Structures are given as C-alpha cells and as structure tokens.
Prior knowledge:
Layout: H1 8-16, E1 19-21, E2 32-38, H2 50-62, E3 69-78, E4 88-97, E5 101-110, E6 123-134, H3 157-160, H4 167-174, E7 178-182, E8 198-205, H5 213-223, H6 230-236, E9 245-256, E10 266-276, E11 279-288, E12 293-305
Antiparallel strand pairs: 1-2, 2-4, 3-6, 3-9, 4-5, 5-6, 7-8, 8-10, 9-12, 10-11, 11-12
Amino acid sequence: MTDPDLSPADALVALLDLREVALDPAVATDATVASFEGDSSPQPGGHVFGGQVMGQAVAAVGRTVPEGRRIHSMYSYFLAPGDPVHPIRFHVDALRDGGSFSVRRVLATQPARGEGEGEGEGRTILAMTASFQEQQEGLEHQERAPEAPGPEDLPTTAQVLAGIDHPVATYWSTQRPIDIRHVTDPIYLGPDAAGTETQMVWMRTLAPIDATPLMHDAVLAFASDYTPFEPILRRQGLSWMTPGLRLATINHAIWWHRHVRADEWLLYVQRSPSAAGGRGLTQGQLFDRAGDLVATVTQEGMIRVKQRG
C-alpha cells in the first residue's frame, strides 16, 4: 500500500510503480512476458479512477520493452469498473519486437464479484494495446498552442471550491495529485454560461517528481483522464453537479509526439465534435510552455442524465 506520509505527487509515482509477480498459468498465454500488480488510491464514490488503471498499464508495458524505446501510442478499452478493495493484476503480452518498434498488449484483471484475493481473476477491467519506438529522426511539423493566460494567473481548484462542504469538492481541492487550472471558466458547480465549445486547462503534478521517463509517460496518461468529459458537458449546458448525471469512459487513446516531464505545465486544449446514442467524443491536444504539441488525446464515454420523477 502507498505510504500515507508521502506527498500527493510522490504517492502517485508510488501508485504507478507496480510490483512484478509470478505469471499466472490460468491467464498467461505463449505471448505473456510479465505480470505486475498494483493497488488503488481511494476515490469518492468507492470506484477506481480510470486514469489510474491506464497509468499503471503504461508502466507495466513499458517495463517489458527493449531499453531506449518509449511509448508513442496507446489505445485502451474500459471493460468493467475497478474495485478498490482488490489489487489489480496487469498481464503483458509481447506482440512484436522489430528493428525500431515494439508492440505490447496488457489486460488488467481483478477477482470476479464475490471472490476473494487469490481465488481467481474473473474480471478484465481494462484492455490496452501500446506501441513503443526508438528515438529516430524524420520529417516534422506541428500545430502550435493557442493564446492562453499562464497558469500562474489562474485560480487553483482549491481556490475555486473554497467553502464548498462536499466530499468530492474536498477530494478535488486537496487530494488530487494533479494541479488543474481552468483557462475557460470551470464547471464544477454550474454550467458554462457562455456555451464555450473549446475548453483549455493547465495541468501538472502538484510538486516536482523524481521519476524515470517511463513514470512521466504514465503520469501523463493518468492526468489525461481528469477532464475529457467537460467539453461535452459545456456543449450540453451541464455541469458536474447536474442531478442524475452518469458518466463512464468507454475508450481512451493517446499519441505521444514529443516526450515531456509531467511535473511541468501542459496546456490541455479540448473540444467535443459529437454526442450521440448516449455517447460523447472528445478530442484533446497537449502543449508545453514553449507552445509545442506534445500529445493528442481522444476519449469516448457514456454520458446520460437520468430524469427524476
């Protein structure tokens, strides 16, 4: 378990630093090269944060590739909600090791409902495929960051939610390991009156972290999952406090164009091009302080508003 005396940022690194465990013959295949295990951080509502599972999965696959190769893309399907009571197992299959690229698949599993630890691993909660590449030279072009005020000029989440007595507000204000500052007005408490179609937030870990490059990639995956629903809520005139709101991530993809430190400010520019069939799609771009495009993110989620009555 994570040391309760660690700072939130250091606790996040510890959370993503998985334990290697023996291969389980019940789930291992001929392609399985390693298995890891990780714990969960407490969340309001008693569920496992999807970004945590993604970050841990990135850390798991990254430990099985040849030295010098870093992740450039990953695609995750969220298959079932995680149970914070049980550790999560990550079973990594090697699909390819070529001259420049390595491809891995990882399944995150937990005991089926009603089973105890060590009694089987009947539920797959996440399936991810990820590709890694050696550092190489090639053609380059990129979009540049839009104009935005710097994070130092924006209120923190704790300042925005000051005086709100609610468990979720307390968690967002004091326990999240990622510092998130909205350029567009936050929609924690009410909808966006301006109906803004593009959302921008700055984010980084709350404090500098002493971590490997792989851990910085895993932290970026973790942090990318905090705000993708918000552009959908903005376009629909909703907020996090809308009664009957139900949200769940279906799939999430990231492309790393350039590698950066997750403890340095990144501008996350997001929009939602579509919502239909009870699902919403968001697209995001991550830029560093120099304005360089460092990653692209897409997410599809279930979004429904249950009517009272």
